[in-house]
Amino acid sequence: MSTITNVRNGRNFPDFTSIPDDNEIDLDYYSEINDFHFTPSRHWCLLAEITHVGYDFRLRLAVRDRSDTEFGIHFHLDNDTGLDLSRFKRGHTVAILDPLRHGFLDFSYGIRQEDLSSIRGPDPGTSPAARRGESLPCLWNGRNDSQVH
Fold first, then answer.
1. Is 88 exposed, middle or buried (0-12, 13-18, 19+ CB in 10 A)?
2. 92 and 51 Cβ atoms separated by less than 8 Å
3. Distance CA 134, CA 128 (A)
C-alpha cells in the first residue's frame, strides 16, 4: 500500500541545496549494491517556480525553490522532438523526479536535464485557469506566489 506524502516533507521534496550532487554519492538517496556500485534507494522530487524561460540553442529555465534559492535548469537533449515549450511559462511550477545538482563550466550550479521523462510542467489546457489563459499559482509553504515580481 502506498502512502501519500506532504509536499512540505523536505526528505521527499527537498530544496535545491539538499538534492544530491551528480559527482557524489549521498547515502540518504542511494544504497550500495556491492563495492563501488550504488543504486537509488528511493525517489525524491524537486519543485520550483519558473521565473524566466530562455531558448538559445537549448531551453533554459531560471527557477526558484521553496527556500527562495535561484538556479537554472538547462536542457541538454539529444533530440528536441516532444519538447512542448508551452508547458514552461513564468509563474508556473516545474517538478523534476530524482534531480542531481550539477556544476557547470561557468562555475554555476543548476540542473542538467538530459531527458524529458523525469520533468513535468503544467499540462497546457488541463486546468480551468490554463484554459482561460491565466498563470497557474505556485504554492510554497502555504503562501500563494502566483504573482511573480
1. buried
2. no
3. 9
Which three three-digit cell numbers place residue 91?
509563474
SS (H, E, C) the chain: CCCCCCCCCCCCCCCHHHCCECCCCCCCCEEEEECCEEEECCCCEEEEEEEEEEECCCEEEEEECCCCCEEEEEECCCCCCCCCHHHCCCCCEEEEECCCEEECCCCCEEEEECCCCCEECCCCCCCHHHHCCCCCCCEECCEECCCCC
The per-residue pLDDT for range 26-50, each reduced to its tens digit, is 777 788 888 778 887 788 899 999 9
In which residue are the cell numbers 541545496 written?
A: 17
The set of cell numbers assigned to 44 is 525524491
Angle CA(110)–CA(115)–CA(116) in degrees, nearest 5? 100
The overall pTM is greater than 0.90: no
pLDDT at 100: 92
4 Rama class: left (phi>0) / alpha (psi -120 to 50) / beta:
beta
Calpha distance 35→70 (Å, rounded): 36
